[in-house]
Amino acid sequence: MKDLKGIKGKYYIARLIEEGEHEHQDFKFAISDARKIARSISAFANRDGGRLLVGVKDNGVVAGVRNEEDIFVIEQAAEMYCRPPQEIRVTAFKAEEEKTVLRIEIDRAQRRPVLVIEADGSAHAYYRVKDENISATPLMVRAWEAASSETEGVLISLSESESRLAGMLAEGPVTLEEFMLAAKVSRSTAEDIVVRLHTMNLLDFVYNGKTFLLCRMEEPEDE
């Protein structure tokens, strides 16, 4: 068991709560299902990282955690239900009325995808979009796996169809079906092209509220 004697953090936690739930932050009122926590860990790890505030209701009210068992369930989620297992950082803070809030920090995964082992034995990857954990598509998972297994530099030499997709992405996000129609290629060929462009850091995925679209990879900002 871990000691729940939290450090002082009333105003710090209040500032975080004021931000609300977003791409990098999720509130958890209670910890009752390790797999639900694993889905949040997967979603943050497959995006850009984030944090869980455990003991906070969806409306921002501090309820506090029940006991040190919550930490055990969270660690179980990261180690037993995430593949590969994820390292998390747990910090306990004393918030309103001496109630304890747990801050769970999750880093962006060095190798994606981070999958969740569901109750039926299947494995699914999740991706954080605004304040939701969205199930990643099989094509996204395949693209992530290909990018993670790429060990050598990729020679950028695009075929006609690949150049067609790159040009379409320069105009804005497109669906796989739109590319298939424009390039007159099969779904299998289109998916192979998507995977290849993703490994070349030319293509990414964006959620439009209903489905994932293909988009141009954003260039990293200068520090």
UniProtKB/TrEMBL annotation:
The keyword Nucleotide-binding applies. Signal peptide: none annotated. It comes from the Bacteria. One of its GO terms (molecular function) is ATP binding. Pfam families: SLFN_AlbA_2. Residues 21-134 form the Schlafen AlbA-2 domain. Keywords: ATP-binding, Nucleotide-binding. This is ATP-binding protein.
